[in-house]
Write a structure and sequence with these properties.
The protein is built from 15 helices and 11 strands. It is α/β, with parallel strands linked by helices. It has an 11-stranded mixed beta sheet, sandwiched between helices. Strand 2, helix 4 and strand 3 form a beta-alpha-beta unit. The chain is globular. The protein starts with 8 loop residues before the first helix and ends in a 12-residue tail after the last helix. The model has no long low-confidence stretch (mean pLDDT 96).
Length: 486
């Protein structure tokens, strides 16, 4: 029998609904796996041992009494940047230690309403700032495929937990690639939805015009289950769009015949590792065999996307993190004098968070606002328009997710620029507000996962998931799992 903890979320749902397994037994299997493996991986900050078993028992009773909700008792993890009522929410930072929100984020509340049970809160780069998950105040997360390597960030804990079989699925957030990069490094599937598709209410903000909540799981169909529950307008979030939510799973037809797939030459440069390039080219050949039409395109403004992203993201971070002063949230370091207290409290921020606050404060300052922030916003508009023009001639855009496979822990920790470059192929989707899907398409000679990315027009999640699902019907990459950590 297949290890319960390595089933896809879709298979978990089928087994629960058929009565083949109970929510209590399933949840206990995940808790046992966490107990055995997570001391090494460090993917969880908080595990709700007793609470989740009570919820699983209640789910089993509800199902026995005819409750029709298909996701009753499905165990998932929640990135620790999403508010959870009564459960410590730290954002991976000392400055929020002990903070317990009095409400659930909308996406969390909707999952609870669907019957999902929450195993715990998952480790992350502090305030979602990082590409490697080495910036958490609770220690780095390790990649379950090779414990000497990073899982990607900032949702690296979520990616590692899914890959290692420590939850059936998880929620991450994506500001510049933070669900897609861990998906690529950990060999799982993750979706960054269109900005405004999933409510951001209860998401502790890093970059308000960029942040998106994204589902992370083994397969495209798994992410469709989670997206279906979370998507839709929320009156608590003014950026949440009032548009219909499709039946995502019904649109996973497996048919891509005639689908036009654009390959932007700027994303297939010499900067991409040859093994990554080879795996993505092989995936393109699979699509051609399935009847998709491959079209070469160009996105020249993408060369500026990383610089634009880091100006805008740090500027928004500088503004958003001003509220964390120990007076309204988190522990206060009382020094008697107001300004000394303020400085000592904010000294609890990690080095990367301090770096981004300083960068953002600089770009927003009176003497540099027009030269940096104003100009970056202008180029962002050009990047968005360029994507819109590209989608007039193609249905989706296919690229590598990351230029390399997961690098070693500590390899780039003293070189922030190298860490920032890991996001070079993903930030464009956030700047343009379009959806992006990351899914595995191969492995390197060293045994590390390789991912590809499929982007589509705004609110075209159905199209990119249909393309990703079709690929997963003819390949086996998404079925591979790492050896259990000793």
């Amino acid at each position: 029998m297949t290890d319960l903890t390595h089933l896809s979320l879709t298979d978990v749902i089928h087994k629960l609904n058929s009565g083949e397994v109970s929510a209590v037994d399933l949840t206990q299997a995940y808790l046992d796996a966490i107990e055995k493996q997570d001391k090494q991986i460090n993917s969880y900050i908080t595990v709700l041992h007793n609470e989740v078993l009570l919820e699983a028992r209640a789910a089993d009773e509800a199902r026995a009494n005819g409750d029709p909700r298909p996701m009753l008792g499905v165990p998932i993890g929640i990135k620790d940047v999403l508010s959870t009522k009564g459960v410590e929410t730290t954002c991976g930072s000392k400055i929020l230690a002990g903070y317990k929100p009095i409400f659930d984020a909308t996406c969390v509340a909707r999952l609870k309403e669907a019957g999902v049970v929450i195993l715990g809160k998952i480790n992350m780069d502090e305030f979602a700032m990082g590409s490697s998950n080495e910036n958490s105040a609770y220690g780095p997360v390790r990649n379950p495929w090779n414990m000497d390597h990073v899982p990607g960030g900032s949702s690296g804990g979520s990616g590692a937990a899914v890959a290692a079989g420590l939850c059936a699925g998880s929620l991450g957030t994506d500001t510049g690639g933070s669900v897609r990069l861990p998906a690529s490094y950990c060999g799982i599937t993750a979706l960054k939805p269109t900005y405004g598709r999933i409510s951001r209410y209860g998401l502790i903000a890093f970059g308000s015009s960029l942040d998106c909540v994204g589902p992370m799981a083994r397969t495209v169909e798994d992410t469709a289950w989670l997206l279906q529950v979370m998507a839709g307008h929320d009156p608590m979030d003014s950026t949440s769009m009032k548009i219909d939510v499709p039946d995502y799973r019904s649109e996973l037809t497996g048919d891509v015949k005639g689908l036009k797939m654009g390959l932007p030459k700027e994303y297939f440069s010499d900067a991409v590792d040859p093994e990554v390039m080879q795996a993505v080219r092989a995936a393109i050949a699979e699509y051609e065999a399935m009847g998709a039409e491959i079209v070469d395109i160009s996105l020249p403004y993408s060369d500026y996307s990383l610089a634009v992203y880091y100006i805008i993201a740090t500027s928004e971070a500088s503004s958003n993190l001003a509220r964390f002063d120990g007076i309204r949230y988190g522990p206060k370091v009382d020094k008697g004098d107001m300004w000394d207290t303020y400085r000592a409290t904010r000294a609890q921020f990690g080095e990367e968070v301090k770096r981004r606050i300083m960068l953002g404060t600089y770009t927003l300052s009176a003497g540099y606002y027009d030269a940096y922030y104003g100009k970056a916003q202008g180029v962002r508009t050009l990047i968005k328009q360029e994507f819109e023009q590209a989608f007039e001639s193609v249905d989706v855009i296919l690229t590598p997710t990351a230029p390399n496979t997961a690098f070693k822990l500590g390899e780039n920790i003293d070189d922030p620029l190298q860490l920032y470059l890991a996001d070079v192929l993903t930030v464009g989707a956030n700047l343009a507000g379009i959806p992006g899907l990351a899914l595995p398409c191969g492995f390197s000679s060293a045994g590390m996962p390789i991912g590809m990315q499929i982007m589509g027009p705004q609110f075209a999640e159905s199209t990119i998931m249909r393309a990703g699902h079709a690929y997963q019907q003819v390949t086996e990459w998404h079925k591979r799992v790492p050896e259990p950590v000793a």
